[in-house]
Amino acid sequence: MAYQVLARKYRPQRFADVVGQGHVTVTLANALAQNRIAHGYIFSGHRGIGKTTIARILAMALNCRNPIGSPARPTAEPCEVCESCTEIKAGNAVDVIEIDAATNRGIDEIRELRDAARYAPARDRFKIYILDEAHQITDAAFNALLKTLEEPPAHIVFMMATTQPEDLPQTIRSRCQHFSFHAVKLVDILGQLRSIAAQEGVIADDAALALLAEAGDGSMRDALSIMDQAIASAPYEPSADGTEGRARLDAAQIRELMGTVPNAVFERILDAVNTNNSAEVMAAANRLLDAGNSAAQLARQCVRYLRNALIAKIAGLSPDGESAEGVGNELLQISPDEQRRAARTAALFGEEELARFLQVMLRTFDELGYRQEQRFHFELGLLKLVHLRRLLPIEEALSSLSGGTGPRPIATADAPRATASPGAPTMAEHHPGMVGRSTAPARPAFSPFEQDNLRRRPEGTANAVSAPMPVSAATPQPIAETRGANAVSLAPALEAIPMPVPEPLPQPDAVPFPLPSPIEARIERQPDVPLPGPVFASAAPTVPPIHPPPASAADGPQTAVVDALAAASLASAADALADAEWIIASDEARVQTHLSKTMLPLVLNPEAEKIVRAVLRDAGILKLALLPGTAAPAAERKSRPARTGSIQARALEHPMVQQAQKLFHADLQTVIDLREPG
């Protein structure tokens, strides 16, 4: 018989043989004993944890010839001796159809399955369809199966195994019983490997089996595949009688086979990080990379080791303890030796530091996937760990600046103290006068939060803080900075010394300011309320009230405005306002023009209006209203001669205009000067 790999040779054939899935096997066994058989099952979970195996065992139990409770089958487990059980175990049963959904995923294959499902089984009790990798089936194919799955014949049972249950349509999942499989625990994998090694006659110590179990990463099939490969590459030891030898599994040989390095290397690297020794960290990385190890694999192992150290710190593992218990045992699926190693590393750092280390190495591991110079990025990631030890956390920096009232962690005598890298000058060398000085940080004179507290205090307590504050001089002094269990000397602190407070300077006498005008006072009282007219910033605050001039006095402002417009080469606007009717009352000028609503903004453009308002403001008139109107009667316009030198006078002197008046008996109403001013 051809050789059969361990994963197939030791494949469970009973519910009791399945490791790590008790919540599924117990439920299915009870359903079989109570005859509560569903027409559809979904088995989801990690790879290599028994989804297809349990589907086959369930198929054997459903089609077993011996009833439950009989002498040949006292429990819900299959008897494994009847014809149906042996055929299903061999994989050649007619009524148990196992389909690879990764290749038979189209709507045509599902239609064939649906048509064949209508027929009764050839011999057994149920016709069972096992769809492996069911998430590969297309949506159209699932829709074709939907009606059959919702109302199947009494002899049909569907079993779907998948690693991605979220890809299955919700309509399919709602019609089936969903069983979520768990990753197999390290202890269960280790026990199974130890049993198989004894049956195979392989000599293996616990360290080698623990490496195989960790390499399985929760998958029993992966662990058995690696074990099969390790047995093939292991040396043979001759037996005592000189006959066939036995394979011996060694931890070093398994690491070399998997391309990994012992975790003791990462323990030494983190020891160098703790002592702030960048040279040792880079030398260790150089030895690992020169030995041919992949930078990505090393980063992956470092991430795993940092994760174990962080969990050991959280769970409070002791380096001298036997093994983790409680939460630590659930979270740390590693051997007792590795648990103690992780606890030794965790004792060197704080929880926050280990979390930052893990974040840096995770980012480094991600970057190695698309970087060309992987060696440089891996070395840079390790160097960042050393640099993180030199940084002061932002919480402690703010606490030292503000002189917080909370207790500051003090380095204890039994805590290991970080040392500077070789050749680095110490603080005492820079400041010899600091020898023997206390390392307790002095409260700085200025707090960034003090000003905010002063603003929020009630008015009654304002005088309580008006006393002069002592000013501190910058005297170098080391700050004892604690990270987890380590205290390092970082930056000089500030030593408070009294400083003389200068006497307040005499204040000058108050200078009287003129009272604001009524308009300015109104603007100050109600800044958001619009005024009835424009208010000019250049108006003097002490302008005397302007009495309404008589009607005959309107010619003065009108003449001034017309002359100003003419001087600014705005002849059209000057003529229009010269012909307009002006009514001045109090501080308002109402100008009734003969221009239409359309022509008014063209003739009196913003530039002309600005000049008009400036002239009126000088005359004490603060408001201006330009009103459109209709054209004046021809008789009235003829009786009013054109102003000498105006654009209208020049137009009347033009020969073409005079000829047009003679031919058409026309009258010149409005003249617009379109020439550029100047």
Tell me about this structure.
- This protein is α/β, with parallel strands linked by helices.
- It folds into four domains: 6-180, P-loop containing nucleotide triphosphate hydrolases (Rossmann fold, 3-Layer(aba) Sandwich); 186-236 and 248-257, Helicase, Ruva Protein, domain 3, CATH 1.10.8.60; 264-394, Zinc Finger, Delta Prime, domain 3 (Up-down Bundle), CATH 1.20.272.10; 551-664, GMP Synthetase, Chain A, domain 3, CATH 3.30.300.
- It is 44% helix and 9% strand.
- The protein is built from 29 helices and 13 strands.
- Strands 2-3-4-1-5 form a five-stranded parallel β-sheet, with helices on one face. The protein has a three-stranded mixed β-sheet with strand order 6-8-7.
- Helix 8 (186-200) packs across helix 9 (206-216) and helix 12 packs parallel to helix 16.
